[in-house]
Design goal:
7% helix; WD40_repeat_dom_sf; 4-stranded antiparallel beta sheet; mainly beta; repeat; 28 strands; Methylamine Dehydrogenase, Chain H; 3 helices
Length: 485
């Protein structure tokens, strides 16, 4: 109970009415608030800019706020009706531009419904139905009629066109129709080697000159050919199980190595050694610097070895066999480090990606028809695609991240795939029998295919390599300026 004596207000009150009843009666009107505060404390009214530090006395129900600093509480004063109306109109116009002309349309207040109507566009779509170029006379404040989320004015890049017909066709009489042989290879010096019956022929692409390299005689036949990476020497696998090495320039035999019991159907060079696969289920490692026929024997397949490829870093050797197995070998071990058994037919088609380390592609025969992609680091299958036909060969492009596959039963087609989407770039037809042989030109643009129809067909499949201007380092530590002596 406040015991402080109050001053007389100086008002003549009617009989039966005191000062307290006057306050209660004036609560219903906004103007009476000033009268009450004036009656309670006449000295409380002061300048708003410099309020008194002494708290003023106010009513017990409605406090006096004349001395309060409202801006310190972050209270925003009510804006003018004209400004708020402008903000609402701008917001509605912006919504109309962003989401469509009917988005956010309010129903009339007389209708008794004040909610937003449903938008006329699917909010989960990331493209608009914009058709036609933007007009400079567009009524839109944003410069176009379809909203700022329209597609970029840059047209999409058209798909690369691959010629559907070969630009050259050569006759190849006596080219065998045998799935397990590898009779065509293209050297880094632009010379094509082809095994025809008992002979190996060399075709020089620059002048179309044909040279007979060797003739094995009537009791033998050519089963495989493979150039060294430098393109100066070529190895020849024979039906009797021999491996011969020839000088491709002088057409002179350099070495003959044995070790296999029957035909040698596949060969693979790395930078130092030669691997050969045979029908005897064995893989032999040959080193021309050593006098012995072979330096190691890899045993793991249960049937004929028909696919053999070294990785680009020479660390791993992939082999495929007629036992439906794909094996990966380490150069320091005679046991396979990976056994991949997902294929359900013979694995002849094998190719290592030049764009990604440890990426291996393999293709299965007639009962499988699939191209499978592997991560040889952990042995996981990354992806696969059913081609619909027997997969005979695979080769990665050197210039782009694509690969080409050749097929046998039942469509005998050539297919170009984009990786990793595995979308088809092109499908080429022309051979009447299985496309059993495949080789790529040194520039990576042209492939040559061979089939049992005794023809070699040349196709322009891949684009040229993008040339990049080398950056010359002329700094102090540049290797270009370093001299050993």
């Amino acid at each position: 109970m406040d015991s402080t004596p109050r001053r007389k207000s100086g008002l003549n009150l009617p009989s039966g009415m005191n000062e307290t009843s006057l306050r209660l009666e004036t609560l219903s009107s906004s103007s009476s608030f000033r009268a009450v505060t004036c009656v309670s404390s006449p000295r409380a009214i002061s300048s708003l800019s410099s309020p008194s530090k002494t708290s003023s006395c106010s009513d017990r129900f409605i406090p006096c706020r004349s001395s309060s600093r409202l801006h310190t509480f972050g209270l925003v004063e009510k804006g003018s009706p004209v400004k708020e109306g402008g903000n609402e109109a701008y917001a509605r116009l912006l919504k109309s531009e962003l989401f469509g002309s009917d988005f956010g349309s309010f129903s009339s207040p007389a209708g008794g419904q004040g909610g937003l109507s449903s938008p006329n566009k699917n909010m989960l779509r990331f493209k608009t139905d914009h058709s036609g170029p933007n007009s400079p006379f567009s009524p839109s404040i944003l410069g176009h009629d379809s909203g700022i989320s329209s597609e970029s004015s840059t047209p999409p890049k058209p798909p690369r066109k691959v010629p559907k017909t070969p630009h050259k066709v050569l006759d190849a009489p006596s080219l065998q129709d045998d799935f397990y042989l590898n009779l065509v290879d293209w050297s880094s010096q632009n010379v094509l080697a082809v095994g025809l019956g008992t002979c190996v022929y060399l075709w020089t692409a620059s002048n179309s000159k044909v040279t007979r390299l060797c003739d094995l005689g009537p009791n033998d036949s050519v089963c495989s050919v493979q150039w060294t990476r430098e393109g100066s020497y070529i190895s020849v696998g024979t039906h009797l199980g021999q491996v011969q090495v020839w000088d491709g320039t002088q057409c002179k035999r350099v070495r003959t190595m044995g070790g296999h019991q029957t035909r040698t159907g596949v060969l693979a060079w790395n930078s130092r050694t030669l691997a050969s696969g045979s029908r005897d289920r064995h893989i032999l490692q040959h080193d021309l610097r050593i006098s012995s026929d072979y330096v190691s024997k890899l045993v793991g397949h249960k049937s004929e070895v028909c696919g053999l490829k070294w990785s680009h870093d020479d660390r791993e050797l992939a082999s495929g066999g007629n036992d439906n197995q794909l094996l990966v070998w380490n150069q320091h071990s005679q046991l396979p480090i990976l056994k991949l058994t997902e294929h359900t037919a013979a694995v002849k088609a094998i190719a290592w990606s030049p764009h990604q380390s440890g990426l291996l592609a393999s293709g299965g025969g007639t009962a499988d028809r699939c191209i499978r992609f592997w991560n040889t680091t952990n042995g996981h299958q990354l992806n696969h695609v059913d081609t619909g036909s027997q997969v005979c060969n695979l080769a990665w492009s050197k210039n782009v991240n694509e690969l080409v596959s050749t097929h046998g039963y039942s469509q005998n087609q050539i297919m170009v795939w984009k990786y990793p989407s595995l979308s088809k770039v092109a499908t080429l037809v022309g051979h009447s029998l299985r496309v059993l042989y495949l080789a790529m030109s040194p520039d990576g643009q042209t492939i040559v295919t061979g089939a049992g129809d005794e023809t070699l067909r040349f196709w322009n499949v891949f684009p040229s390599m993008k040339t990049q201007t080398p950056v010359k380092d002329t700094g102090l530590w540049s290797l270009g300026r370093t001299q050993i002596r």
